[in-house]
Amino acid sequence: MGRTLSIFTVLLFSLFLLGACAGESSGDGEGDGNGKSITLYSPETPDLSKELAQKYEELHGNKVNVHYAGTNVLVNQMMAEKGNPKADIWYGGGGILPFEAAVDKDIVTQYIPPSAEDWEVVEDGIKVKHEDGYYVGVELFVLGFSYNTELVTEEEAPKTWEDLLDPKWEGKIQFPNPAASGTSTLMVLSYMMEHGEEAGWEYFQKLTDQANSIPDSGSAPTKGVAMGEAYIGIGFDFMAYEHQKNGETVDFIVPEKTPILVNPITLVKDGPNPEGGKDFMEFMLSEEAQQILADWQHIPINPDVESTTPLSVDSIKENAIDLDIDWVNENYDRIRNEWTNKIK
């Protein structure tokens, strides 16, 4: 079925619709360190990206301008800027598929930081870097089930995707809209790859009937759980643990088999400051940057940095399902478009 790779490597567009706040920056102009300022494009949480930029500035002196937008917005911007790019590096997008597409679009270039040069392309079932060096992973995301601990016990919480169809969850589930959320689209695709399209459409019609809301935002179901608007929400692990860190009654279940992904960083082709971009990519794998990611409840890829959540590479790798990247690339838009017509 084409080249089959762990879905650790592929779940994409999880932040597909995060709003654009383009133009904000943590600094501008010339740095007082070893060269020019660096421009970072990222759809990740603005405060997280800003904290990473500030730590780099503290350690290296160069200013880092952070521009925020949704993944699609950033990709379109990089396409429009081909020949005169404004960005040096691009970090994040909910997985490797937008980065794989960017290779074909010729908007990124080959570079693997020295600390990752000896990594295998796939380690422990996780694709940690592009086979031709076009990107490298910096963290892991897990798709699963958040639940409100005041409404659901850990014992009764769903443990598999099929458990979500239990009649006891009718009207108590939220999940993102696959027609709008890339994260949710890949959830659909991964289920169909295991069970076939016909069974997949039947499953998601039943899941839709269980839901009390299907918001466009990938983070909204987890927020709904935290607010008591839903018992169960489908989303990423770090979303649940962020709410938990804030004192809210939310916990997270890793399904028995589920999409798990690596979130990458890449060097923009012909960016104005490639050496600064390369230096920032190396920084992102350092203990300092990885600790920031861990403090934001992301699973670090650097083995010298401990996860601040119950999840780690070792604890989740057996839960990952495999995905045929070629099939996903060929069917992603079609499946997303068909959702509106097939699911009522």
Task: Give an overview of the whole structure.
It is a single chain. The protein has 344 residues and is an alpha/beta fold. It has 2 domains: 13-140 and 263-307, Periplasmic binding protein-like II (D-Maltodextrin-Binding Protein, domain 2, 3-Layer(aba) Sandwich), CATH 3.40.190; 141-259 and 321-342, D-Maltodextrin-Binding Protein, domain 2 (3-Layer(aba) Sandwich), CATH 3.40.190. 35% of the residues lie in helices and 18% in strands. It has 11 helices and 15 strands. The chain has helices at residues 46-60, 71-80, 97-105, 182-195, 197-210, 220-226, 237-245, 274-284, 287-295, 313-316, 325-342, and strands at 4-6, 38-42, 64-68, 89-91, 108-109, 122-123, 126-127, 136-148, 173-174, 211-213, 232-236, 250-253, 260-268, 299-300, 322-324. The strands form 3 sheets. Strands 2, 3, 4, 5, 8, 9, 10, 11, 12, 13 and 14 form an 11-stranded mixed beta sheet that branches. The protein has a two-stranded antiparallel sheet with strand order 1-15. A hairpin with a 2-residue loop joins strand 6 (122-123) and strand 7 (126-127). Helix 4 packs across helix 5 and helix 4 (182-195) crosses helix 11.
